[in-house]
Each structure stands twice: as structure tokens, then as C-alpha cells.
Design brief:
The longest helix is centred in the N-terminal third of the chain and has 20 residues. With about 300 residues, the chain is an alpha+beta fold. The termini are far apart. The chain has a single domain, classed as Porin, CATH 2.40.160.20. The chain has an eight-stranded antiparallel barrel with strand order 1-2-3-4-5-8-9-10.
């Protein structure tokens, strides 16, 4: 997290330098929602897993058609096997064929993660933005693509305790037995791609709507990405909590007692070492989504001259 903060501060100073030299700059905010596509969402956006998101941005208009935007956003993503079971049952009731939900029932995993993103977006306006006049009130549909970094930290609830999942090595990451599987980084790269539109509502204000997917280079946004490790290996590396969070099928056993010192001797686990923990069938890395309503203000610096009315 410290590395992420230092990188963010550096980029902020670079943006301040750009803004200071700009002739037409907008600053603004976006409020909306966030969601994700991954192992615990059935590879689709589940509306019940939508959370609040917010962001601050600065836009530098190079020309009426092109702009670059610095974006710092916050959002939360989450997923739960129980939601997928409910969804698949709904499909069955409607007579729609779907995969057997027994795997999701037994896997019984869930997570949530706060995401902090910094990215730079290149924007293209389909209609020109008249930069030197107040007379027009342009409607500006646009598309964008960018590059960014984001910080995440998947967590889950265990009883009345919130547990960070990455330190537990829930697939055996970081253990001496699986020394070829390193613990995944909590800072990753994203490629934002999306579209939006904005409408000028005053001399210096725009209001709009924007939405974009973030393609990432990690499959562990939800802490699920590979196969089940050996319970004894995980117990030796991260103890009882690691075992109980790696394979939560034991929670389906009404006689399970997670307070025992060594759960391997008493709990009933459905999965074995080498069984798939991820059942992804298409894009392997996780994707998250941010969308919302935008409001921006145009900053006019001294020396720009008078606009045309």
C-alpha cells in the first residue's frame, strides 16, 4: 500500500504541472456504482453486488476532439457463491438450462474488496468541443481508453471477524511446498475502456454520464484463481484460519466445530488437493466496472484572453 501511495503522489504532482500550463482544464467528480466480473459473479454483472463508487478527475482538452484525463477513483466489489446458486435456481424455474449449481454450493466462497484506482485516459469526442466560445452548449459523446494501477485487498467474514485473504495463501501460495506459486500482489494494472457523454449546462459546467470496464492483469481480485492446495500444507503455513477460509465447504456440515485447534481432524471438507477452485470458462483475469454521473468545471487561467460570445 505504501508503494501505491508514493506512486499516486508522484502522478498527482505531474498532473498539477500539466494543469498549471494548460489553457483549458476541467476538474470534476463522478458518483455512481461499481461491480465486477470474476469467479464469484458467474462471469456477469450481478446487480445485487453493485456498490457505491466515487472519483475525482482532471481533464486537459488538447483540441476540440482530443483530451486526456487523470482519474482517481474508489469503488467496492464483492461476490458470493450463494448469489450464483440463487440465480441458477431462478433460471431452472423459468425452464432455462444452466450448469449444475452443486459446485457453487460446495465451494461456498465469498469476498469483498475496496479498490483504489489511479489511471490516465485518452478521450476522443465524436462531436467537437468549442473551447473558445461561450455561445454554444455542446453535447459531447466520447470514448476513452487508458492505463492505470489499482490497489485491492480481498476480505471475507469469519464469524464476527473480518479476515484478509491474501496473507492466508488460500491456494497454498507462499508455502515451501508450493514455492513456485507466489502470493499475488495487491497492486495491479488495469486498462480502462468505456464511453460517456457530457452536456454543457452553463458557461463553465458540464454534466454527464460515464461508464467503463477495467481489464486487469490479475485473477485474484476475489482471491480465487487456481486449484485447491493441501489442507495440511496451508495449516502449516498460515494455521487454522488459512485452512477454514481456503475450503469453506465445511460450513455445510451442521456438526462442524471451527473452534477446534486442528480443523483437519474434525471438519468435513468436500474438496481435495488439486481440485479446481476456479471454474472460469472465458476471460481468465478479473474485470471490474465503474460508472456514474459526472459534473465538471472549466478552469480559465489568466492570460487566456476573452472568450467569444
Amino acid at each position: 500500500m505504501d508503494k501505491f501511495k508514493s506512486q499516486f503522489i508522484l502522478v498527482v504532482f505531474i498532473l498539477i504541472g500539466l494543469i498549471a500550463s494548460a489553457q483549458r482544464v476541467e476538474v470534476g467528480l463522478m458518483l455512481g456504482g461499481s461491480n465486477y466480473l470474476g469467479d464469484l459473479s458467474n462471469e456477469k454483472l450481478l446487480m445485487k453486488e453493485t456498490h457505491f463508487s466515487g472519483s475525482l478527475f482532471g481533464r486537459y482538452n488538447f483540441s476540440p476532439r482530443f483530451a486526456v484525463k487523470g482519474y482517481f477513483g474508489y469503488g467496492r466489489v464483492s461476490g458470493d457463491d450463494k448469489n450464483m446458486i440463487s440465480e441458477k435456481r431462478d433460471y431452472l424455474l423459468k425452464g432455462v438450462r444452466t450448469n449444475n449449481f452443486e459446485f457453487n454450493k460446495n465451494r461456498n466462497l465469498n469476498f469483498y474488496s475496496d479498490i483504489y484506482e489511479f489511471s490516465l485516459h485518452a478521450e476522443y469526442n465524436f462531436l467537437p468541443n468549442q473551447l473558445n466560445t461561450y455561445k454554444t452548449r455542446p453535447f459531447l459523446p466520447y470514448i476513452f481508453i487508458g492505463l492505470g494501477i489499482f490497489n485491492f485487498n480481498p476480505k471475507s467474514n469469519f464469524g464476527n471477524t473480518t479476515v484478509e485473504l491474501q496473507p492466508l495463501g488460500t491456494e497454498g501460495q507462499g508455502s515451501t511446498t508450493y514455492n513456485d506459486i507466489a502470493k499475488y500482489s495487491l497492486t495491479a494494472i488495469c486498462i480502462p475502456i468505456g464511453l460517456g457523454f457530457r452536456q454543457k449546462i452553463g458557461d463553465d459546467f458540464f454534466i454527464g454520464v460515464e461508464g467503463g470496464l477495467r481489464f486487469t492483469n490479475t485473477n485474484y481480485l476475489d482471491d480465487v484463481g487456481g486449484k485447491y492446495g493441501s489442507g495440511s500444507v496451508i495449516f502449516g503455513a498460515t494455521g487454522k484460519t488459512g485452512v477454514l477460509m481456503a475450503d469453506r465447504s465445511w460450513e455445510l456440515n451442521p456438526n462442524a466445530n471451527p473452534s477446534t485447534e486442528n480443523p483437519l481432524s474434525t471438519e468435513t471438507f468436500v474438496f481435495n488437493e488439486g481440485d479446481k477452485r476456479s471454474d472460469r470458462s472465458s476471460y481468465k483475469n478479473d474485470i471490474y466496472f465503474m460508472a456514474g454521473v459526472t459534473l465538471s468545471y472549466t478552469i480559465r487561467f489568466r492570460g487566456q484572453g476573452c472568450p467569444t460570445f
